[in-house]
Write a structure and sequence with these properties.
This protein is mainly alpha-helical and about 140 residues long. It has helices at about 10-15, 25-40, 50-55, 60-80, 85-100, 105-115, 115-130, and strands spanning about 40-45, 50. The longest helix has 19 residues, at about 60-80.
């Protein structure tokens, strides 16, 4: 069975983001930001999902700054959850690596398709939430 890529509407994602400091609201926000940054659109023909990180990354320097800012926001949300300094450092390393590679012309644009720092950081946040805030776990079908 093959997995079919679905299109995510970025405006719908932003409109549904909850406001609040509780773990469930933070989880919903970081999931929405990751979806928008890494899987918002599907490239026709190859069915490969891409997000704003890869598209805006085509703009020299400005796109990389935007991607780093959004990645930093996810780290800020993780900090609000009380995650350890080691976890925050790993997440910061992911964003820093993605930004540094993104500054290299052409290589950085290709790397945005392969190295998805926001997805890696979301995985770290979800692991923390599943362990320390099990009520926020969502089951998807």
């Amino acid at each position: 069975m093959t997995q079919r890529a679905t299109r995510i509407d970025p405006m719908d994602v932003l409109n549904r983001m909850p406001v609040g400091r509780d773990p469930a609201a933070i989880r919903a926000r970081v999931v929405a930001i990751e979806a928008m940054m890494e899987r918002a659109f599907v490239i026709p023909g190859i069915n490969r999902p891409v997000g704003l990180d890869a598209i805006i990354g085509l703009i020299p320097v400005l796109g990389d700054v935007f991607g780093a800012a959004m990645g930093s926001w996810m780290i800020w949300e993780a900090r609000n959850l009380g995650m350890s300094k080691l976890q925050l450092a790993r997440m910061g390393g992911n964003v820093a690596f993605d930004t540094a590679i993104g500054l290299i012309p052409f290589v950085g644009d290709a790397a945005d398709f392969l190295f998805r720092s926001n997805t890696r950081n979301l995985r770290i946040i979800k692991r923390h939430l599943d362990k320390h805030h099990p009520a926020t776990v969502t089951v998807t079908g």
